[in-house]
Amino acid sequence: MASRLGYPRGYCMRLANGQGWHLIATEEVVAWVEKLAFIMELKQCAPNGYPKLIFVLGQTDPKNRGQSISGLDPNIQENLPKSGWKERKFPAIKIWNHHSVPDMICEVGHEKVYELDILRMYMALYPVFEMVQYSGGLPLHAALVERDGMGMLLSASGDTGKSTCCGRLRSPWKPLCDDETLVVRDDQKQYLAHPFPTWSEHLWRRSTQTWNVERHVSLSAIFFLEQAEADRVVSIGSGEATVLINHSAMQICHQYWHKLKSEEIRNLRKKLFENACELARSIPAFKLRVSLEGCFWEEMEKVLS
Length: 305
Description:
This protein has 305 residues and is an alpha+beta fold. It has two domains: 10-124, no CATH class; 138-304, Rossmann fold (3-Layer(aba) Sandwich), CATH 3.40.50. The protein has helices at 30-39, 74-77, 114-123, 126-133, 162-168, 199-205, 238-257, 262-282, 296-304; strands spanning 10-14, 20-25, 43-45, 52-57, 86-90, 93-98, 101-108, 138-140, 142-147, 150-155, 174-177, 180-185, 191-196, 217-227, 232-235, 285-290. Strands 8, 9, 10, 11, 12, 13, 14, 15 and 16 form a nine-stranded mixed β-sheet that branches. A seven-stranded mixed β-sheet has the order 3-1-2-4-7-6-5, covered by helices on one side. Strand 12 (180-185) and strand 13 (191-196) form a beta hairpin. Helix 3 (114-123) packs antiparallel against helix 6 and helix 7 packs antiparallel against helix 8. The chain is globular, with a radius of gyration of 20 Å.
């Protein structure tokens, strides 16, 4: 992905609702972006009209700090405002945005530490989540499983059974991811779900696992996991579903919000809750009580048939 000669190629992230990003990098962080693209199974592409997410190495010279485009190649700078960029701080990275363009600049730190690199990759996805949120979608702390082309979410807090349930499923059920799912809404107000990486696999286990984040399935139902003596599915109303969906989304979003300004957080919370309400009204939701050894997916099939 050259950045010194001509306009750089990059990686495409296309979502099912027509939104997307073109990920490009300056020479110093090309290897880092290549690894991010590998984990998310993104393919190389030329500029394609999508907003650019431009990755750069953070400035170390105090005189240049705050001048987010000063180190960019001339071909990238050409269509970007020269000043007026707004800095947003996140753990391990900075993201710059400008009111007049959809493109964003992500500053990656200089420290060569494996764990920090993985954290930066996770944090660098904030613009993706924010764009989706303002179009009616949500990132959810949930596994995504598929059966006969239908997508179902298994939502629960950490270490409460999502991964175990995914591992117990039998054909024709297929797990697509076991921790984080991005739900988008298209122009017809249909909900579609994308599998996203389980970053802890890379952070703690140094896994080589990858996830095809461009793959998507139509969302048919949401199941909230509970441990129980016997397998059972219990239907819940849209009010309770809204609360649970909102909580699931907050488990993802709060990790990005704690360094944002309070007014910005209030607006994001409001939009998130509105999206949870609409999702709860549109997609059936259930509590899924799961035993240690039962065939819980058979109970799911009863309410899906």
